[in-house]
Amino acid sequence: MNSRRDFLYTIILGSGAVFLAPLPGCDKKRSGAEDTKLQKIADALRPRTGTPQFRVAHEYLRDGKPLPIARTTTQHDVIVVGGGISGLTAALVLQLNGINSVLLEAEHRLGGSAVSETMNGVSVPLGSVYFVSKTEEIELLMRAAKIESVQCPDDVHILASGERVRDLWSDNTLRAVVKNEDDRQGMQRFRDRLLAMSDDLPTYPLAQTLSSKNRELDAVSSADYAKQFGSATLDKVLNAYSRSSMGAASRQTNAYCLLNFYQSEFGTPLGYPRYSFAGGTSRLTDGVARQLTNIHPSSLVARINETETSVEVDAVEADGSVTRHVARYGIIAVPKYQLPRLLARPSVNRLKALSQLTYAPYVTIQIRSLVALTSGDAYDTWDLRSEETYTDIIDPMSIQSASNVNIVSLYVPLQLSQRSMLQSSESFAAFAAATVEKYAAFLTDEQRESIIEVHCWGWGHGVVVPTVGSHNGPAQQASVPTTRLRFAGTDNDCAPAIENATEQGARAARDIIAQLHGKAGR
Question: Domains of the chain: which residue ranges?
Answer without folding.
Answer: 7-48+358-465, 54-145+279-356+470-516, 168-273
